[in-house]
C-alpha cells in the first residue's frame, strides 16, 4: 500500500510465475468458486469491514461514515533506523490524536488500529529489526506503548516485503513474541488485549522483491487475529500493455485474487484468518493505438491521473469517464471494469465488480475485507455496496 508519495504497492508483480503452485490455477472456469457446503469455515455475517486512513490524504477523520466499517487503520508510522522504536514526528502526533479523538466516540463505533510500514517503507529496516530477539523486543514494546498512549485497539504490520526464507522465519518469531507481549500486557494491566494483524502479499508464496519464499502459515494461525492479503496492483505502468488492477479471475496466469486466496488456504491459513483487500483506485495507460483498446492492448506509458504512477482514485475515474464520455466495459472473465477514450485507458473496480468480490469472500468463508483507502471513494459508493453485500443474507 502507498505512502505519503503514493508509491505503488508492487513494481514487478507481473513477474509472479505460473510455476509457483500451478496446481492452484483452475483449468475449468467451473472450478473457480466452491459451493457453500464445501467451505469448512462459514463466514460471519458481521466479520471485518475495514479501511486504511492515510494520514496524508485530504479526508478528515471526523468525516468518516462509520456505518460502513468495523475497523479503521491509521496509515502509517515507521520504525526508526537503528533504534527500531516507532518514529512519531510532531505532525504524526497531531494526526494520530485527530484520528483517534474523532473516531473513539462515533456511532456506530469502530475499532482503530495503528499500521506500521507501508509500500514506501524500507524493507531492510524491518528485516534488521526482526533479525534478533533484542531488536524485536524493542520494536514490540514501542508499538504497545504508542498504541496504548493514543488509545488504539490494535496494531497492524505492513512489511513490504520479507525478502527471503530467513526474513520469513524471523517474521514468525516476531508474530509469536508480539502476540505473547500483547497477552502479557493486557493481563498485567487488566485491559482488553490489543489486536494483532498484518497486511501481506496477495499470495502465500511469491518471488517478487527476492527469491521464492512463503509466509509462516503456522505462526499466522497461532498468533495473529487475521492477515490481509493485498489483492490489487496486479498490473500497472511498469508493463507495456493494459491490465486489470485487481482481477478476481485470470485463467491465463496466477495473478488473480482467486489464485491468491486459494493459495493462502492451501498453505494452511484458515479462511477465518483472511481479510481480503480491495482497491478504491485504478491504474491507467496510454494506448499505443486507440483502436486497440481491450485488456492486454499495447501501451506506451501512463495514462490520465497521477503522472508518476499512473493511478486514479475511484471518484476521479467516474468524473473522467463522465467528462470525456469514455466507453465503459465490464469484463465478466476478470470481474473488473475498464474504460477508454482516445489513447487513455483505465482499469478499475465499480459497483458490480465490488459486489461480486464481496460475494466471493463470503462464499470462501473469509473473515472480511478491507479497502485501500479512505478518501478515494465517490460519496461512499463502493463502501456502501461492499457493506450491504457483506451483511445481506444470500443463499
TrEMBL record:
A Gene Ontology molecular function term of the record: chitinase activity
Assigned keywords, A-Z: Glycoprotein, Glycosidase, Hydrolase, Signal
Signal sequence range: 1-21
GH18 domain residues: 47-393
GO BP annotation list: carbohydrate metabolic process; chitin catabolic process
Cellular component per GO, a single term: extracellular region
PROSITE patterns: GH18_1 (PS01095), GH18_2 (PS51910)
One Pfam family from the record: Glyco_hydro_18
SMART domains cross-referenced by the UniProt entry: Glyco_18
Segments forming a coiled coil: none
Protein family (similarity comment): Belongs to the glycosyl hydrolase 18 family. Chitinase class V subfamily.
Name of the protein this chain belongs to: Chitinase-3-like protein 1
Organism in which the protein naturally occurs: Quillaja saponaria (Soap bark tree)
Taxonomic lineage: Eukaryota, Viridiplantae, Streptophyta, Embryophyta, Tracheophyta
Amino acid at each position: 500500500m502507498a505512502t505519503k508519495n503514493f508509491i505503488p504497492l508492487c513494481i514487478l508483480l507481473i513477474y509472479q510465475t505460473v510455476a509457483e503452485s500451478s496446481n492452484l490455477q483452475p483449468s475449468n472456469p467451473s472450478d473457480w468458486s466452491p459451493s457453500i457446503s464445501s467451505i469448512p469455515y462459514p463466514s460471519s455475517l458481521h466479520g471485518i469491514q475495514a479501511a486504511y486512513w492515510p494520514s496524508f490524504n485530504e479526508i478528515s477523520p471526523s468525516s468518516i461514515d462509520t456505518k460502513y466499517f468495523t475497523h479503521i487503520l491509521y496509515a502509517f508510522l515507521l520504525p526508526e533506523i537503528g533504534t527500531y522504536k516507532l518514529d512519531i514526528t510532531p505532525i504524526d502526533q497531531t494526526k494520530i490524536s485527530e484520528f483517534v479523538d474523532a473516531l473513539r466516540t462515533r456511532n456506530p463505533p469502530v475499532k482503530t488500529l495503528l499500521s506500521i510500514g507501508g509500500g514506501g517503507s524500507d524493507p531492510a529496516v524491518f528485516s534488521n529489526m526482526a533479525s534478533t530477539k533484542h531488536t524485536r523486543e524493542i520494536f514490540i514494546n514501542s508499538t504497545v506503548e504508542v498504541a496504548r498512549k493514543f488509545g488504539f485497539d490494535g496494531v497492524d504490520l505492513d512489511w513490504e516485503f520479507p525478502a527471503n526464507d530467513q526474513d520469513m522465519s524471523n517474521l514468525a518469531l516476531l508474530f509469536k513474541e508480539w502476540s505473547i507481549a500483547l497477552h502479557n500486557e493486557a493481563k498485567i494491566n487488566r485491559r482488553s488485549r490489543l489486536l494483532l494483524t498484518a497486511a501481506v502479499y496477495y499470495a502465500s508464496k511469491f518471488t517478487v522483491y527476492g527469491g521464492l519464499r512463503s509466509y509462516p502459515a503456522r505462526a499466522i494461525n497461532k498468533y495473529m487475529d487475521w492477515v490481509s492479503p493485498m489483492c490489487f496492483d496486479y498490473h500497472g505502468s511498469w508493463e507495456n500493455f493494459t491490465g486489470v488492477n485487481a482481477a478476481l479471475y485470470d485463467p491465463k496466469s496466477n495473478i488473480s485474487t482467486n489464485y491468491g486466496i486459494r493459495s493462502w488456504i492451501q498453505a494452511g491459513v484458515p479462511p477465518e484468518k483472511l481479510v481480503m483487500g480491495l482497491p478504491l483506485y485504478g491504474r491507467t495507460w496510454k494506448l499505443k493505438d486507440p483502436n486497440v483498446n481491450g485488456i492486454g492492448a499495447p501501451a506506451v506509458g501512463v495514462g490520465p491521473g497521477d503522472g508518476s504512477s499512473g493511478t486514479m482514485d475511484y471518484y476521479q475515474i467516474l468524473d473522467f469517464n463522465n467528462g470525456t464520455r469514455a466507453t465503459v466495459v465490464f469484463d465478466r472473465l476478470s470481474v473488473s471494469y475498464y474504460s477508454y477514450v482516445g489513447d487513455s485507458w483505465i482499469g478499475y473496480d465499480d459497483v458490480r465488480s465490488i459486489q461480486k468480490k464481496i460475494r466471493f469472500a463470503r462464499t470462501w468463508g473469509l473473515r472480511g475485507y478491507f479497502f485501500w483507502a479512505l478518501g478515494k471513494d465517490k460519496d461512499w459508493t463502493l463502501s456502501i455496496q461492499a457493506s450491504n453485500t457483506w451483511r445481506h443474507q444470500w443463499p
